């Protein structure tokens, strides 16, 4: 009769290359990870101003809403203001 295997952790502190006969492939999943995520690294002074992803998203939404309301015409370089997107959709101006 076999003894029950111990539930002791089997990870080692160090491994040798010979422990992996198939070898290593650096960056094997890098391309897949890059296409499946939207990770952006913020500079330290920006990160202190926006401590959470929700704060960053809200700031970016505000900028996008403001950009939708202003259009610069190439021939005059003068900005033209537009009504907010909500009033354009409903027709209220």
From TrEMBL:
Domain of life of the native organism:
Bacteria
Basic and acidic residues composition bias: which ranges?
9-19
Q: Where are the stretches annotated Disordered? A: 1-24, 70-93
Q: What is this protein called?
A: Uncharacterized protein
Name the species this protein comes from. Banduia mediterranea
Q: What is the lineage of its organism?
A: Bacteria, Pseudomonadati, Pseudomonadota, Gammaproteobacteria, Nevskiales
């Amino acid at each position: 009769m076999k003894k029950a295997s111990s539930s002791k952790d089997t990870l080692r502190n160090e491994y040798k290359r010979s422990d992996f006969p198939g070898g290593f492939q650096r960056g094997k999943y890098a391309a897949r990870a890059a296409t499946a995520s939207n990770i952006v690294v913020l500079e330290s002074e920006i990160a202190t101003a926006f401590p959470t992803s929700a704060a960053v998203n809200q700031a970016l939404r505000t900028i996008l809403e403001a950009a939708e309301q202003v259009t610069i015409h190439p021939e005059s370089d003068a900005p033209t203001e537009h009504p907010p997107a909500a009033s354009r959709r409903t027709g209220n101006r």
